[in-house]
Amino acid sequence: ETVYLKDYTPFGWIIESVHLTFRLAPEATRVLSRIRFAPNPDAPAQDFFLHGEALSLISASIDGTPVDPQVTPQGLTVAVPDSAFTWEAEVEIAPAKNTALEGLYMSNGMYCTQCEAEGFRKITFYPDRPDVMSIFTVRIEGEEKVKLSNGNPGKTGEGFAEWHDPWPKPAYLFALVAGDLVSHPDAFTTKSGRDVDLNIWVRPGDEDKCAFGMEALKKSMTWDEDVYGREYDLDVFNIVAVDDFNMGAMENKGLNIFNSSCVLASPETSTDANFERIEAIIAHEYFHNWTGNRITCRDWFQLCLKEGLTVYRDSQFTSDMRSAPVKRIEDVIDLRGRQFPEDQGPLSHPVRPESFQEINNFYTATVYDKGAEVIGMLKRLVGDEAYSKAVDLYFDRHDGQACTIEDWLKVFEDATGRDLAQFKRWYTQSGTPRVAVSERFEGDTYTLTFRQHSPDTPNQKDKQPQVIPIAVGLLNPNGDEVLPTTVLELNDSEQSFNFKGFAAKPVPSILRGFSAPVVLERDTTPREKAFLLAHDTDSFNRWEANRDLARDCLLAMILDGAGPDTAWLDGLEAVLRDDSLDPAYRALMMAGPSAAELAQVLYARGHTPDPEAIHQAGETLAQFKSERWVDLLPRLAEESRVTGAYTPDAEQSGKRALASAVLSLQTRLDGGKAAAEQFAAADNMTLQLAALGQMVKSGTGEAALEDFYAQWKHDRLVMDKWFGLQVAALPPEEAVERAERLTRHPDFTITNPNRFRATLGALAGSHAAFHRKDGAGYRLLAEMLIRLDDLNPQTTARMCAAFQTWKRYDSAHRAFARAELERIKAKPKLSRDTDEMVSRILNG
Ligand code: ARG
Ligand code: ZN
To answer: Which end of the chain has fewer CB atoms surrounding its CB within 10 Å, N or C?
Structure first.
């Protein structure tokens, strides 16, 4: 059942062409395939095996002669000629019954597909592996008004449409959409003069929510031309919004399919955060056209080859479109919030995993986000120019191929002459490296000594030192920068760096811009952190100094019963009063570390985290801040007021982010009065939702929740917010019961992943509620996951990750969590997806 990277063998045949005909019917779609195979001279001898799952085989033939293949639940084998031949098959599938949302399925009466990673085998018999690339011609027969597939449009007529994709592609990039859709059209002309028709296809009624996504698409196309020299390569680019979708979106060639939550936007229904995310995801999927589609992965172990690189590219795009410092901080918050727990718990795996049972379980923060960090480190180490040169070489050398991480690193070695053997450990070693720093000042020489070590992780012990780029700057005691950002390259387990010519001991600013995804261990005084908070020229480290102080303050409150650290709060106040600083940046400064992050730090330092105590400390600190800052709050509220029409750009959304941070403190003073006013007056979702959240939190939100429901019950995406917000904002004593009640609400649809995630994901994300000491949080999630598993294994398995930290808590928590994990594990006919996740979480 387990697949290993080391077992890779090429497929025994190449495919010259694929012709597919779909006769659409909800319960009985017929798929006819005609595939031209020729022996692959580079492959070892093997039986002819085609993947196929849940397909009824109607007929099969080779070169026109009927054959009778041996069919198993995984696929078929059949005897084939020694030379080239044509395979034809007809199968029947039932898209209307497909609740797993993998393969061909239906969403609100519309046909759509999701094939990555291994969904094409649920459509027809095929070598469903990314290194088998071919040219697809598709004919769709059905009465639906709109019928789409990959590539360029061909003939259309009464009840049919044909598509031809000239670019060879693996089956995971296949897509089909059919339904009574409407489009928001536009056009783009590439640098070399190709006219491209652009469309965003939606259900009637959603046309007015496409404009922002379309602008994001055009910006992405221009950016990829300008920054990476990459042009689009077909006559059409179609995006389709689908309500039922397991992930965010999918980069199918020329036909990107999106979770509607990741493309539809309007000021009235979407928050600023939604807009930013939509812009990034549109860019991400578009950028895949080169990093993923033109150059794809040899096998699924290489997933980070396309995902790490494409996440890195979309983060560069967002930095260029918005604020680079803000984007960097957001990404690091996300990395620490999602990737660090993964890397430091039972689900830890290398950026390039070595084995898996179900590949869908490896679309992880490690593969995506740590994968992107690895690219960022590589760029920092070789420099911007060498990075461009290497990436150009990658496109030149590997266009049209299915590649590996070795291919990727080789272009950097060839372009720069650098040996990357050690750097490669970032791809093969799991776990978050720890870097301990000590300093010495002697004569005029300042010395920094670094020691690195990586703790053991499941299946990996005794790790080797990695190449860690550490960006460092030095400030003199007056706060002037005396050494601008310099990248130190740490290769050994212990290494020292000298800086000469200082009259007084400088203050170091280490790991600027979070130059490597590591945990920095350094004993410094609060005074030094306060100094960096006041003076650091690196915006990331300035934010980081504040975050460290906030964290240390909360830890002291939790562990020693200390009161809030007023020296820190005064330093922070000075920063917040500095109106030369971007409001978005100041909003980030106002947010402390999350409860989950505090739990993680406590655990790493040898304490058993107590979710109630963590929650209480957060509440106490927030109350203290709001009382201490009675003068500051109105001033910030004034500064963050937006005038003029709503736009979702960085400037306005930064102001609204600051306003929301202020409102949350203000609500603690006025019992929800300002929030209620804002709720009543809001003309955009950002302000409306922020106000509603504060009202619910302060216990004055129940009527507003009903008003909100009445206002928005027709809009699925806004209703997702309504489901999620109550669970997230209510105090832990009420959140679990509310989540439970919501799962029985008439609008709760278990088959819709967005609704399920909104409700149960909010529970899992509410630290004190999920880890409630009577086990009620664990019980509800487990119960719902058990119900979902038969319907949608992928989403079930992903959400099991909520339990990944279970071993950190006290024995009562552990007993409850273990019982629930074992209950899931014991479910009859548990999916392979969920089984793998629960087993790893229990045993890792
Ligand atoms: N390639 C898609 C993206 O990152 C993700 C699709 C993953 N889907 C899945 N079922 N595993 O853009
Ligand atoms: Zn992707």
So the answer is: N
